[in-house]
Amino acid sequence: MKRSLLFLLILTLTACGRPSAGPVDNNTYRETNYAKGGPRFKALLLYDDTAEEAHVQFDHQAIAFFRKQTVGEGFIVDSTQNLGAFTEEQLEEYSVIIALNASPSRDARPLFERYMENGGGWIGFHAAAYNDIRTEWPWFVKFLGGGVFKCNNWPPQPALLELDRRDHPVTRNLPDSFVAPATEFYQWTPEPRENPDIEVLVSLSPRNYPIGLKDIVYGGDFPVVWTNRNYRMIYINMGHGDEQFSDATEQLLFINALQWIVSLDPAGNPFDK
Ligand code: ZN
C-alpha cells in the first residue's frame, strides 16, 4: 500500500511539474519575438501517419526539411496530426498551416474555415487537396478553385514542369522549366485555370504526354502549383514518395512558397525587419 501511494505521489508531482504538451506533438511552445532577434513567425505542420506509405514518407521528410529551415530560430515549426485539438486563438498564432498530405478532420473543418477566412495561411502538398464525391466539403472545393480529383499518372515518375509565371515571388528565381523528381501528379476537373480567382504558377509540360505506365494521362491542362487570390494559400501538387527533397530547384520552390505566404500575413510582413 505504502509503495503504491508513493508511486502515485511521484506520478502526480511529475505531471504537475511539467508544462502541458498542448495540441502540438513536438512538445515545444515558444513565443515569436522577432523584434528582439527571436523567431519571426510560427508554422504548423499538419500530417497524417495513417495515410498511405508513400505519403507518410514524404510527410516525415518534409517535417525534417522544414525543421532544418528553422536553424538559428528564424521561425518556429510545430507539428500535429490533430487540428481539432487547437482552439481558434491557438491556431491564429500560426502564420501558416503547412498541410502535408493531410486535411482537417471533419470536426476541425469549421475551425479551419474560420482560420482561412480570417486571413490564415495555407500551403498544401499533394494529397492535402485531394477531394472527391465522398469528401462532402463544398467550402474546401471552392477554396481550392473548384477542382475535384480527376486522374493521376502511375507509377510515380519524374516530369518536365514549366513556369506559367516568371515574375511571381514563388517562381522569380526558378528556371523556366525543370524536371521534378518522381511523384504522382493529380489532374483536376474542372481545370483550376478556368476559375478567374485562380492563378496558375507552374504546370506539367504537354511534352510529358502520355505520362504513366499503368495509369496514363494522355493530355489536357495540368496545373501543378496554383494560388487562389481570395485566400492566403498556395497548392503544390508534389509530395508523393521519398524523392521530393532530392532536387534543389524543387526545394527552392518550397522555400519560396513559405516565404511568400508568410510575407502576406495580415499582421505584417515579418521579413521586413
Ligand atoms: Zn500520392
Strand content: 15-25%
Beta-strand segment tally: 11
Secondary structure tally, helices: 6
Largest sheet: 9 strands, mixed
Shape: globular
Taking Cα atoms only, what radius of gyration do you get, to the nearest Å? 20 Å
Corresponding CATH superfamily: Class I glutamine amidotransferase (GATase) domain
- Distance from first to last alpha carbon: 61 Å
Count up the domains. Answer: 1
| Heteromolecules bound | zinc ion
N to C succession of SSEs:
HEHEHEHEHEEEEEEEH
State the name of the first-level CATH class. Alpha Beta
- Helix and strand composition category: alpha/beta
- Subunit arrangement of the protein: single chain
Instruction: Write down the overall mean pLDDT.
Output: 91
Low-confidence stretches: 4-21
Strand order in space, largest sheet: 2-1-3-4-11-10-9-6-7
Helical residue percent band? 25-40%
Using the 3D structure, state the CATH architecture.
Answer: 3-Layer(aba) Sandwich
Q: Within the CATH hierarchy, at the fold level, what is the topology?
A: Rossmann fold
Structure description:
There is one protein chain. This protein is α/β, with parallel strands linked by helices. It has a single domain (35-272), classed as Rossmann fold, CATH 3.40.50.880. It contains six helices and eleven strands. It has helices spanning 2-17, 53-68, 88-92, 109-117, 138-144, 248-263, and strands at 42-46, 76-80, 96-100, 121-125, 148-152, 157-163, 177-183, 186-189, 198-204, 223-228, 232-236. The strands form two sheets. A nine-stranded mixed β-sheet has the order 2-1-3-4-11-10-9-6-7, with helices on one face. Strand 3, helix 4 and strand 4 form a beta-alpha-beta unit. The longest helix is centred in the first third of the chain and has 16 residues, at 2-17. Zinc ion binds next to helix 2.
